[in-house]
Specification:
The chain is built from six helices and four strands. The chain has 193 residues and is of the alpha+beta class. Bound molecules: flavin mononucleotide (FMN).
């Protein structure tokens, strides 16, 4: 298969996998490192390399999920808090192998906007997702729970301009891959010639 078709197969074949349908099998740390190396090749305006990762493995995955659920309990108004959601968050990582929290570290270059730094970090995440697809690793990029709440900056001791982009549940699954669904690209494109 030529490079384009191989890449096309990986990109179009990549699917999100909910942690609830992961099977508990552990990923070795080495493939996780390889995926982080791919992330590190994302495009970056002025070479600021703003992507940052906090990698949880082993018992630390459950510990983080419990702490995350506690933050949900503490920072959710009683009117919207639900015990079912609290419990789901506590156990979301039970069948995952690793969990990676991704954030953008705002640099000091005044010529580079926060939007550009977020774009670069999102590109780094996509590199991980595509690499994981190639390695047969299941992933869900999630912004659920408190991940986009300002308390996350406090929790990870981030600067006020740093931005959490979500967490990646990583594991293996025995579930068959559901076909992807996208509207036609023609509806999202205008050509000027
Ligand atoms: C920034 C971002 C945040 C997401 N957050 C969640 C989430 O909180 N929960 C979830 O189930 N899926 C989440 N997803 C995954 C999407 O649901 C998924 O990409 C979409 O359903 C398309 O499916 P596919 O990735 O298999 O093509 C997120 C995706 C992105 C890009």
């Amino acid at each position: 298969m030529d490079k384009f078709h191989l890449l096309q197969e990986i990109i179009a074949g990549r699917r999100s996998t909910k942690p609830a349908v992961m099977n508990g099998k552990k990923i070795a740390d080495e493939p996780i490192r390889q995926l982080l190396e791919l992330a590190n090749w994302a495009p970056t305006h002025a070479n600021t390399e703003p992507w940052r990762f906090v990698v949880y493995s082993g018992d630390a995955v459950q510990r983080f999920c419990h702490e995350h659920a506690e933050l949900y309990r503490q920072y959710t108004p009683p009117a919207t808090f639900t015990p079912a959601k609290y419990e789901k968050q506590q156990h979301n990582g039970d069948k995952a192998s690793h969990l990676i929290v991704v954030y953008m570290k705002r640099g000091s270059n005044p010529n580079i906007t926060a939007l550009e730094e977020i774009c670069a970090t999102a590109a780094a995440v996509e590199n991980i997702l595509l690499g994981a697809e190639a390695l047969g690793i299941a992933v869900l990029w999630s912004t659920g729970g408190m991940l986009l709440h300002p308390v996350m900056n406090e929790y990870f001791e981030l600067g006020s301009e740093d931005v959490v982009l979500g967490m990646l549940y990583m594991g293996y699954t025995d579930e068959p891959v559901k076909p992807g669904r996208r509207g036609p690209i023609e509806e999202k494109t205008s050509w000027r010639s």
